[in-house]
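__Protein archive entry__

___
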Amino acid sequence: MADPTEPVIARRKADHLEVAASGRAESSRGTLLDEVHLVHQALPELALAEIDLAVELAGKRLAAPLVITGMTGGTAEAANVNRDLARAAQAAGVALGLGSQRAMDEHPELAASYQVRDVAPEVVLFGNLGAVQALAMGPARVIELAKRIGADAIAIHLNAAQELIQERGDRDFRGLVAAIGKLVDASPIPVIVKETGCGISPQTARALIGAGVHTVDVSGAGGTSWVAVEAVRAEAGSDSAMLGAELWDWGLPTAVSVATCVDAGLVTIASGGLRSGYDIARALALGARAGGMAAPMLRAQRAGGSDAVREMIDRVTRSIRAVCLLTGCRSSADLARAPKHLGAPLRAFLEDLGVKYPLSLSL
């Protein structure tokens, strides 16, 4: 039973964790990453040990091209999740994103659930706040929230579809491009703009570039649907539940969003339905700088804490390294130039959006 003394936003965050971990809010559509076919090289002339997976992201070095993308904060369970993820991310040398810091801004007593520096002092850490909240707060307050957790970058999330389904969610999304631009100009640390399961279109990519954004996390359709999360949470038979059911699979597939943003010249984190190192490798082949995973890491944490998350990270990086060997690539960055074939559904989608292939890679 919910604690009546607990802030509403904390109860909502707890619901989000439970629904996302359960798998009840998965998209029924695919990411289209399975339409990226890498060409096998039977004579790679490489040793597995010499393959370099290191990349630079947000001005920081990662040992492997992996981000544990922002999921949670604001509850006692969230504190445990974040700290387990942080320990594993630091040990493996990959990046970690936290969930929206709106809860700690509105309820300072919840701030501890976002604090991970004591257990992971060197992890590459991304703060997180919604674009609507960033507009309302102004740059100085957003930057202060990032400083309070020791963030290396600020992720500003876009979630219009989710908000439309959420009871009493945001309904006014005007002025966000200008707000993002002001934050980019004011921030002493990089600003990453991320979607939350619906992907980034060519029009959005151009708007973000105009606002001075250099790095995006596409969070495309094909994995956990946050429209679906809110639909599951909504009262049965309510307008929110019915609209959520209609828009359950709304969004651009992850592979489409990755290709779109890479072609636009943005440093791109591929997330949204990535479930394996092979998925990340296919996203890297489209030009992504790194891949992001949330649900697989959350489920690992629930199954076995920090050790299980570390095992998941190791499994993912082994897979990326194997694909590099089998395609003759000495580094994960080289996958973007490896011979590949895009299946007809992905090619057609990109053609309809005006995204040319081969992509304009600028790695």
Remarks:
- The mean pLDDT is 93.
- The radius of gyration is 19 Å.
- DSSP finds 14 helices and twelve strands in the chain.
- The first strand starts at residue 36 and ends at 38.
